[in-house]
Amino acid sequence: MASRGKERLTVWLDDRPIASLTRGEKPGHVNCAYADEAFNGWAMNTPLISCSLPLVTGPQEATPFFRGLLPEGNALRILAEKANVVVTDTFGMLQRYGKDVAGALVVASEPPDASLYKSDSLDEGHLAEVIRDLDENPLGIVDDSELSLAGMQDKVLLVKDSSGWARPRRGMPSTHILKVNDLAHARLVRSEGECLDLARSVGLTTVENEIQAFSGRDCIIVSRYDRTREEGRVRRLHQEDICQALGVDPMVGERVKYESHGGPGLKDVAKLLDDYADDAQRELDRLVEAVTFTVLIGNADQHGKNLSLLHGPDGEVSLAPLYDTVPTVLWPELRSSGAMSIGAQPVLADVTIAAIGREAKRWKHSESRAIDVATQLVHAVTDALAEDVIPDGSPVRRYVESRAADLTSS
Asked: Which residues are marked as active site?
């Protein structure tokens, strides 16, 4: 048997072996080296795997990106126990769970093989059992589940087949994520779903959602924006969150994803778009829209792992569709300060259109253009509310209507 130092995993992109992953010198760390297949298909310095891992020769320290594919907190601890590795063993975790992760990469010792995919149909009763067991069985895995997803919230990865919902196995790409309502915050997932509906109505996301109750507990099931169907098969789309793109290691601490704790700020996001987007001005406009929407719904949790980039076929990036659109302002015990400050204003409820313009100026984007883009987005959201995209009487609708009035009068 090869020694642990010689162990190697292959990183596959669209069934192409683009890199190899090995254990680093420090315990738990990993190195990544691009393969000939990558150099034959893309230009040097392309952000192929990540903006933090450009296409260059030789091994690169890759721990922050690959750790960013794994869950956090208690879910990480339990999955590590099931894999019989320590929580810091990124290589060992991906060896066990790396065949279906966020984005388009497959991390495995063998080539991806769709003929091995399996799934278990889950009727309402079985799915309710999976949800009840999430505290002890994160992501609803079984012995041959080879999947992972970042985050701390209780969730299950699903596929939708002709008979309904099913649990993917043996590296089958999941298509949906089920998230369970936090018992301490009534109506949270319903509010998230309403915000997703609103975001989709104004072109800020492609994510669809539905709310279902299992054993009396509300759940939201969202479509994965990093999956698409082509000619009857599911295709993975490559993406990474902002922490991964900047090489921020989630193992440093749970709060490192927040700007106030050394995590990414909007200026960092803007620089990534400026450096790697095909049309930087368009993408910075979209970032202005995303910021404005975050202010409108009162989402103080839009941190570096809740904002992502999509990678195109040539390595170009664009701002990913919005997801995790939780209006935290509706629960006074949750955060009131934004995960990323806006125009030097940390308190989300105090952000004005002018503050959004000042923030954009920090990115070297046109301040007046940003103000126009933000104002247009507020009007588009107001029009969508008038068309009852969110039900009348909803706390989300009341808050957004009030916030929109504030922004347009300031």
From this structure: 301
